[in-house]
């Protein structure tokens, strides 16, 4: 078992606008405080798939290539509230690398949090970790 370096990602309201345009998801809970409050949210929230993608970016950074990811999945535990300020929200991604299995796949367990709260649950990836001299998976 190996603890991987923590990765952080800042998410601002401008990021939400860019993501909405790219994804075609213009749900007002991702940009309107009024609408977010009217449905019981604590404020504007990041798109769940954006949160998942940022955690996935940590995995690809650790393994060194996007095509090394064989499987990736999460459960959404709580929303990422993005304040209307220049700092936005900070997503923290920690990972634990497990030994490779017989097929050569390495499981990476992720802990993804924002403001001290876990936002993704059961977050894990199966990757083909590059083999280095002395590396046993």
Automatic annotation (TrEMBL):
Transmembrane segments annotated in the record for this chain: none
Pfam family, one: MaoC_dehydratas
SUPFAM superfamilies per record: Thioesterase/thiol ester dehydrase-isomerase (SSF54637)
Start and end residues of each MaoC-like domain: 8-94
InterPro entries xrefs: Fatty_acid_synthase, HotDog_dom_sf, MaoC-like_dom
GO CC annotation terms, alphabetical: fatty acid synthase complex
GO biological process assignments: fatty acid biosynthetic process
GO molecular function: fatty acid synthase activity
Family: Belongs to the enoyl-CoA hydratase/isomerase family.
PANTHER family: (3R)-HYDROXYACYL-ACP DEHYDRATASE SUBUNIT HADB (PTHR43841:SF3), 3-HYDROXYACYL-THIOESTER DEHYDRATASE HTDX-RELATED (PTHR43841)
Protein name: MaoC family dehydratase
Organism: Pilimelia terevasa
